[in-house]
Design a protein that fits this description.
The structure is a homotrimer of 269-residue chains.
Chain A: H1 2-16, E1 45-49, E2 53-58, H2 63-68, E3 77-83, H3 88-100, E4 104-109, E5 122-128, H4 131-148, E6 152-155, E7 158-165, H5 170-176, E8 183-190, H6 192-205, E9 208-214, E10 227-233, H7 235-254
Antiparallel strand pairs in A: 1-2, 2-3, 3-5, 4-5, 6-7, 7-8, 8-10, 9-10
Helix pairs in contact in A: 3-4, 3-5, 6-7
Chain lengths: 269, 269, 269
């Protein structure tokens, strides 16, 4: 009976507190904590994914609205991916989408979010001349997220994130300046101090070439509590740099809170 | 007994976790969850309202401070409205206040807040030559908030907001560029992806004229996870556009979390 | 038995909700609420402190990374202090560190954080030619934090912060423009409306000279929901201004939530 009561209470509490989940433990992992999402019959609806992510598509954006949207007017159809939690996972997923579909990434913006955590959410718009291409880009992005959340690790004190691709495409070029066709990786640590140390660890662990460095006040964050290090190099070196940084990051994050540091889904690097 | 215990625990938990309430369920709605606010005898204190909103007045701002405050020096008296949760509700409420009183809105700033949610808080300063006018502007703003929170809807996954006025005045002109004396409305969706779709829905549902479009990285948000669409038109068209967007927004927000989507107070549009 | 159950539940709840603690009640105060942080054997690790603060040191920053970091290249060794919660406490603590060590503050950045609260976290980098100096600067900063959190007060509705030094040094000069060698103080209130009133109270309570005024959209915040007032004057006047503002701030903050307003550690002003 006592355990029933505990569970009932936890459910109730998590329900009321739902919007404050930690970045690396998004809603999808806590089925008991939230009401079941509802189905949606709108033709514009594509799907949802981890991180309070939603995918949508608009076949013909209203022309007067289009003028206000700060995107190239040649695309009539847009695909939309937005999330409360996660920027790196979504940008790397979008990169796979532009490789796989006849679409372009026309906008990447990073709200300061993660629902009380230290990082970003995201808003990514794909442009296409045909609505089926825009929809397909959104579908690919959503389907990649389970993988790209694999090296996102969170505790109550902060989070770590690592991403890797053997061949960067246009989304990574637009968001981070990644050289097209090259291996590319990022390390992200919050609080930002951990990100500084991980950047140095990555830079020293293998022969990589720094592409960018973003901190709370510079280089592209939206005042998130993160340092993001972006680098290229040969494929083995980029992975080696990430693995070394990940090892160090986990050790330091553990000193702030003893919660076990686990992947949001399943590590892929 | 068991229910007593549940309630006692919930009170205690909500107490400790108080600062993380979702945007559309501000403190005023959860009397059991918080300690009773205390009275205040300061002459500068005007009152409080939903959204952790406080209203204050200063009869004569210190002249040396005034120089640093980035506001027009001709006003000796200022009224102050600030909130942890809510920007649209406060700006539309302030618009009623400038219509009803002998005051001007001299500053509107939007912190990135909502206590872990995806939106803004607000800081609004009214200027007046007489302290009673400044106080009256704050009083009117506070009294309007219960109405202007009526079309704010939140769940653990995000929020929707809609505002409408038949006749925009100086606060809406200053904050959003609304044409004076015209009908004016906004749709707001978080995560921002939902706001994009609602903007398109609103633009297509009636003959409205886009006035502005704000997203996490452009157009006036403070990196909130929102897209805000602002439009004018005839009064019926503005309302019709809002109602259509609201219907779509609710359906999409429901796909992220099954929590019932309810008004923070009572819908007015 | 009932109390045991309550405690067990609270522990479990606080555990899951750990990342949403209010700014003035950082992790260090709630030992039962979190798993025990782990030890760290990395040579770069210096220590942790209140506010989810971590201190690190890098003896020789990787040269290619250094070029991207936006800091003066003459420093080979850097000390790093980062926190999820707290900017003022860390900057005033860093000011003691630069007085006490052979190091300089080369970067101060303020993420928008406090884990769902209305304020900032921080990232502070010390530069030194020798790693032992960088390490010492970090150690001094960490050791000062218990004191500098003394006049940080939080409730579920917002927070107040006050800092004072009899003699400002280079960290305060860099962060706030404080005149070197002079007495210097700040008042901080969230929601920002409270900060406006405290600024006026401080300015009128004693003969102080305003140095700066920061609000959600101007003067140096990262869109936090705070107004920060910075001032100099003779030592007694600066303290008197702070004490008057603190008294007023506590009264107003109490009107939003009845939670008792207590120091994060122990008041020092």
């Amino acid at each position: 009976m006592k355990d029933d009561l505990v569970e009932k209470l936890m459910d109730e509490v998590m329900r009321k507190m739902g919007s404050t989940e930690a970045p690396a433990a998004p809603a999808a992992e806590k089925p008991a904590a939230k009401a079941a999402p509802k189905a949606c019959n709108l033709t514009e609806f594509v799907g949802t994914a981890i991180g309070h992510t939603v995918g949508l598509v608009i076949a013909n954006v209203d022309p007067l609205l289009h003028e206000k949207m700060n995107i190239d007017r040649k695309y009539r159809s847009i695909g939309i991916v937005g999330a409360r939690t996660g920027a790196g996972p979504h940008i790397f997923a979008a990169d796979e989408a532009v490789k796989a579909t006849n679409s372009e990434v026309v906008l990447i913006e990073l709200p300061r979010d993660t629902e009380g955590g230290g990082g970003h959410g995201s808003l990514i718009l794909f442009g296409a001349e045909d609505v089926s291409d825009a929809r397909r880009a959104v579908e690919v992005t959503l389907s990649e997220l389970n993988r790209t959340f694999g090296d996102v690790y969170g505790t109550p004190a902060g989070h770590l994130e690592f991403q890797y691709t053997a061949r960067a495409s246009h989304a990574l070029h637009k968001a981070f300046g990644a050289p097209l066709g090259q291996a590319f990786g990022i390390t992200v640590g919050a609080p930002a101090a951990i990100g500084v140390l991980m950047a140095d660890t990555a830079a020293k662990a293998a022969t990589v070439v720094p592409v960018g460095y973003a901190s709370p006040g510079n280089g592209g964050t939206s005042h998130s509590n993160e340092v993001i290090f972006m680098f290229t190099g040969d494929s083995g070196a980029v992975r080696q740099a990430i693995i070394a940084a990940r090892e160090v990051g986990k050790q330091v994050l553990s000193t702030l809170d003893g919660a076990e540091i686990v992947s949001s889904t399943k590590p892929y690097i």
